[in-house]
Amino acid sequence: MVPVAIMPPAMALSKGTKLGPYEISAPLGAGGMGEVYRARDTRLGRDVALKVLPSSFSTDADRLRRFEQEARSIAALNHPNILSVHDIGTQDGTHYIVTELLQGASLREKLIDGPVPARRTIEFAIQVAQGLAAAHEKGIVHRDLKPDNLFLTKESRAKILDFGLAKQTDSALQPNDATLASSTHTSAGMLVGTVGYMSPEQVRGESVDPRSDIFALGAVLYEMLTGQRAFRRSSSVETMTAILKEEPVDLSSGSQLPIPPGLQRIVHRCLEKDPNQRFQSAKDLGFALESIAAGSSTQANAVPPVRRPYRMLAIAVSALAFALIFLSWLAWPSRPHQSEWRQLTFGIGYLSTARFGPDGKTIVYSAAWDAPETKIYTARTDGTEVRPLDLPPARLLAISRSGELAIALHSGMWGNPGRLARVPVGGGSPRELLDDVLEADWFPDGTLAVARVVNARCRLEYPIGKTLFETIGNISHMRVSPQGDAIAFVNHPLLGDDRGTVMMADLNGRIQPLTQEWEGEQGLAWSPDGREVLFTATAGVDTDRNLYAVTRTGKQRLILRPPGGLYLEDVGPEQNMLLTHNERRYEVVIRQSDGSTRRWSWAQILMAASISDDGKLAVIGDWDGSAGIDYGVYLQRTDGSPATLLGSGVAGSISPDNKWVTSILPSDTSKVQLLPTGVGEMKMVTAPHFHYRSANWASDGKRLVVRGSDGEHPLRVWVQDLPGRAPRPITPEGIDGRFVTLAGADYVVARDASGALQLYGLNGEAPRQVLGATGADQVIGASPTKDLLYVTADLYAVPLNLEKLNVRTGTREKFVAISPVDPSGIVLFFPPIFTPDEKNYLYTQMRDFSTLYLGNGIR
C-alpha cells in the first residue's frame, strides 16, 4: 500500500468567534485541509467562506511561506471559473484563508444522481477548461483536479476549488479517494494527487505540467458521462497500475446516455498515457469542446471548423465525366456482383429526396428542375410516366404503407426546417401538423416520428412531443424500421457538417451507436427484413462514398464501391435501390449599377466576403481546400480582370481606404491578419488570451469590430482599437450579432436575451431597440446614410426577398428580390453585401445538380 499522511484538523470554532475582521457564523464542513466556516466580513458587510488551516501549517515555515505565495498567485487570477481568494491571515497561531461563499453543490454531490447528459457535461467542461487555461498561463498547475474540487453554483457556473493546495486524506474518503500529499512544491519521485485522477506521470512521481490537469479533467468527464470512474480498482496500487497500463472501458459501451462521438474522442485524447498525445493546453481543449457546443455561426464570414477544409465540398467532377466513369465501371468484367443500373432523371436541377412507393414500382421524389421551386414528382421504376403532383412547393420526407406522403412545406430545397404536413399520394390539400421539422418517417400503424428543431437543438421525437434523443448538432436521414420497433438516423455533432455516426433508438429512448464516426455520411435506409441499416459514407475528404450495411449489433460490411460518391435514398422490397449523384458548386455573383451581372466560379467553393464602397473591388474566399487547410483570400476587380491571391485565411472585410483586408486562419484564431491589397507587408492584430471568429473594419478605418472570446466569457462582439489594443465588449456575454453602419454611425445589431432586436453602439452607449422588428426578421445589412436595416424573413428562399426597415419609425418598404439569371440547380443564396449607394451588390449562390439512379441486384 502507498503510505498516506494524515494531517490533524484545526480546532473547531464556535459561533461569534472572530479571526481578524471575520466573525464566524456557522460551520460548513470539515476535511483534511481543516475546518470550513461561513463567516461575516465586518468591514465590507458580506458573507464569505473561511477555512482554518491545520495546525501542521504553523510548524512548517517553508510550507506556510509557499502556501501564502501560491494563494496570492491564485487571488491575482480573478477568473470566474476559479474560486476567488479574498484574504489570508493569522491570529494567535491560527492560519486561515478567506474565499468567496458559493451556493450550490460540488460535482461529487451531483454525481450521486448518476451520469450527466452530454450537453451539460460539455457546458461544464468548457468552463473548467477556461479556468485551467487562466491558471496555467500564470504557471499554476492544480495537480488534484477531481469531482470534489469542482463546484457548480446555483447560476450553473463551474468553479475550481483548492487550486494548487496540497490535499490530505479525509477520514470520510473511500480507499480510492486517498490523497497522496507532499509539500506544495514537490521533488521528483514524490507523489501528489488523488488516486484515480492522477496522470501517469504523477503516478511515476515525475514532474508535472498543465497536461497532467488535462488528464485529470478527462477522468472527471469520463465519470460525468458514465457515472463510473475511468480507473477504479480494489486498491490504490491496482488503480495506479491501471492508470499506467490499461485503457478505460469505451465510452460508447460504458454509458447509458448518448454521447456524441466528437466528445468521446476529446475525452479519450485527454486520457492518453503519453502527455505528448493529449491536448497540449487547456485552451486547445476548450476550443475543441466549444466546436461541439457552438455548432456553426449563421454569419457567412465565420471561421469554420479547423479539421475539415472540404466540409461542404461534394464531388469535383462534371456530370458528363461521372456518367462516363460510371458506365465504364458497370462494364468492368471483374466486379464481384452482377448488378443493373438505370438513370431515372434527366432534368437539370437539384433532387432532395426519393422514395419507393408501397408497390415497389412507383417512385416519388422532390426536385427543382430548371427553376428554384421544389415540386414533388412520381415516376415508374422504368423511368416512364413522370408527372408532377398537384401540390404546393414542398420537400418529400416519407411515404406510408397506405401511400400517404409526409412533406415539408416552406423548407426550401436544401433540407432546412419546414412545416410538416400529410397528403395522399394522389394529391389534394395538405394537412399541416408541426413547424420546424427536419425529418419525418411513418410507422407501420400510420403514426409519425419526427426530427425537429426546438430551442436551437435537434430532437428525435416519437410520438410527437416525446423526446427520444437530442443533440446540439443535427439529425438527418431518419428512418423507421420495417417492424416499427426502432428508428435509425445519422447524428451530426456539428451543424452544417456532414460528419456523422449511424445510430439507432428504440421506442424507450435507448440509443445505440452502430458505426464509427464518418468524415462524411449522407443517405440511410433499412433492409427489407429490418436486420441491417444500409448507408453511404466516406472515411476521408479525398475518397468517394461507399455503400455499407450494419447490423443492429454493429457488425458492418462493405456492399459497393461506386465511383463518384453516390448517396443512398431508399431500398425497395426486392433490395433494389435508389441512389443520387450530386455535383455542387458555390459561385460568387455581382450585380452592378448598370444592371449587368458577372459570375466567378474558378474554384469549387467560392464565398463572397466584402465589396469596396465604390463597387470596384470584391473580396472573395476560396474554401475548397485548393489553397490549403487555411483557405485563400482573393481580391477580385469587378471589371473582370483576373483575381489576385492576397494570402491565407477566411476572407473578411476591406478597409474604407481599400488598402487592407482582414482574414483569420482556422488553424490559429489568436490573431487577425491584415493583408495589403497593394505593396506592403502583412500586419497582425492580437490580444492576450483572445480568439477571433471574424473581424470587420469600423467605418473610421481605425478600429476592428470582432466576434470572439477572451477565454473568460462566451462568444460576443467586441471593438478593438488599432494597433492591437485590448478588445472592449459591445454586446452582453453570449450575445452574438452583425456589424452594420447605419445613418453614419457604427452598431452591432443583435437580439438580446428576451429576443428583442437591439442596436449596440461601439462607444458603450445604452442599446437602442429597433422599432417594428418581428421575431422572424433576419438582418443582413444596413444603409450607411439612412436609418434603414436590410431584413428578410427567410434567408433560404429563392428568390431572396429583402425589405428596408426604418429603425426609428418601424415602417417598411420593399427593397430588392434577388433571383438567379440561370435558375437551374440553384439551392440557396447567402446574404448579399451592398455598396453604400445600394447600386452594386455581391452575393454567393449554391448550385447543385442531381441525377437519380435505380440499382438492381445489389447484395
Structure report:
Strand 37 (632-637) and strand 38 form a beta hairpin. The protein is 13% helix and 40% strand. With 859 residues, the chain is mainly β. Helix 3 (118-137) runs antiparallel to helix 9 (282-294). The chain contains 10 helices and 57 strands. Among the domains are: 18-294, Transferase(Phosphotransferase), domain 1 (Orthogonal Bundle), CATH 1.10.510.10; 336-584 and 850-856, Neuraminidase (6 Propeller), CATH 2.120.10.30. Residues 1-10, 164-191 and 294-337 have low confidence and may be disordered. The strands form 13 sheets. Strands 12, 32, 33, 34, 55, 56 and 57 form a 7-stranded antiparallel β-sheet that branches. Strands 17-18-19-20-21-22-23 form a 7-stranded antiparallel β-sheet, with no helix packed on it.
Q: What radius of gyration results from the CA coordinates? A: 30 Å
Shape, please? Answer: globular
Count of helix runs: 10
CATH H-tier superfamily of the domain at 18-294: Transferase(Phosphotransferase) domain 1
- How confident overall, as mean pLDDT? 82
CATH class of the domain at 18-294: Mainly Alpha
Oligomer: single chain
Structural class: mainly beta
Count of extended strands = 57
- Ranges where pLDDT stays below 50 over 5 or more residues in a row are 1-10, 164-191, 294-337
Q: State the distance separating the first and last CA atoms.
A: 59 Å
